[in-house]
Write a structure and sequence with these properties.
By secondary structure, the chain is mainly α. The protein has a domain at 105-313: MetI-like fold (Orthogonal Bundle). 78% of the residues lie in helices and 0% in strands. It contains twelve helices and no strands. The protein has helices spanning 5-40, 45-52, 59-68, 75-87, 101-136, 141-155, 158-172, 183-214, 217-224, 229-266, 272-281, 285-313. It starts with a helix and ends in a 6-residue tail after the last helix.
């Protein structure tokens, strides 16, 4: 029995509401876990800050800073206070820089977004092209290239590749100035690094999805009508394959965060991931907590967006 359009729309609405509710619960759980882990980390941030400022860590100085930062309260009180202020846009003040954490994030976020989104966009375009070429001629040069890229991405550390890129493009070829150029010039190598480590695995996923579609009877019927294998893949297999590619992009977005961190540190880009590295060394609770929640929110939004897009591409997709 067919369902009325409003019943189907209501079912989609309930499913989306459930997914959003689960996402919010996951965000809350991530904030609690991050808070507890930070409190369990060794070393007292108050002592680290006093030593860094060349202030004798006397009991009076320690007590004054702990009270100013709210660290003299119970764990439950500290978390409730942080959560209430966080939800209103007050992410706290950095122990290390004495500046609002949200301000620090806003200043550094554009660079991190440029590296992450730029790298993923380049990797996706490359993966679609390589995946189509590999599926058109299994075992050919493009197929071997995707396999090589995927293996290298899993076996070679990103920081080593970043150093090699600096040596090649900045020293040997001298076509880029990784540390001295303008903003665009300094972002080229970080974007390439993120794209390089994502393109191989995404291309293999694209190839697999295309070959799965190529084995269906309706695909063979399309070829029987006079289409070449490449034409049939582009006209009839590309759209279903994009659903699988979107599913693979979700974990790659997580890698983009980690890859951005490596790129920012090695290429000296002042993004939020480099800010995190500095904050961890100083046990900067508010900065680390804000970063963890921001990344968890990023992955949650990516998951929800991918689910919606996959259903739009293929209505048969449930999740």
């Amino acid at each position: 029995m067919s369902h009325a359009p409003w019943e189907e729309a209501g079912g989609r609405g309930r499913r989306l509401a459930t997914e959003v509710g689960l996402a919010l619960a996951a965000l809350w759980a991530a904030s609690v876990l991050a808070f507890l882990v930070l409190k369990a980390m060794p070393a007292d941030p108050v002592l680290l800050v006093l030593i860094d400022r060349n202030v004798p860590p006397t009991p009076e100085a320690v007590a004054e800073l702990r009270a100013a930062w709210g660290l003299d309260r119970s764990l439950a009180g500290q978390y409730a206070d942080w959560l209430g202020r966080f939800l209103t846009g007050d992410w706290g003040v950095s122990f290390r820089t004495d500046r609002p954490v949200l301000t620090e994030f806003a200043e550094r976020l554009p660079l991190s977004l440029a590296i992450g989104f730029g790298g993923l966009a380049l990797a996706t375009v490359t993966a679609v092209g390589l995946g189509l070429a590999a599926a058109e001629r299994p075992g050919g040069a493009a197929d071997r290239a995707t396999r090589l890229l995927a293996v290298l991405g899993q076996s070679i550390p990103a920081f080593w590749t970043a150093l090699l890129m600096i040596r090649l493009f900045g020293v040997e070829l001298r076509v880029l100035r990784p540390f001295l150029g303008g903003d665009v010039e300094r972002l080229v190598l970080p974007v390439l690094l993120v794209a390089l480590y994502s393109a191989g695995s995404l291309a293999r996923v694209m190839r697999r999805e295309l070959l799965a579609t190529a084995g269906t009877p309706w695909f063979r019927t399309a070829m029987a009508k006079g289409l070449t294998r490449g034409q049939a893949l582009r006209r009839h297999a590309l759209r279903p394959a994009l659903g699988g590619l979107l599913a693979a992009l979700v974990p790659e977005c997580g890698w983009a965060v980690g890859g951005t961190a490596v790129a920012e540190v090695v290429f000296a880009v002042p993004g939020i991931s480099a800010y995190l590295v500095e904050s961890v060394a100083a046990r900067d609770y508010f900065a680390i907590q804000g970063y963890v929640v921001a990344v968890a929110a990023w992955m949650t939004v990516v998951h929800l967006a991918a689910a919606v897009l996959r259903r739009a591409i293929d209505p048969r997709t449930v999740r």
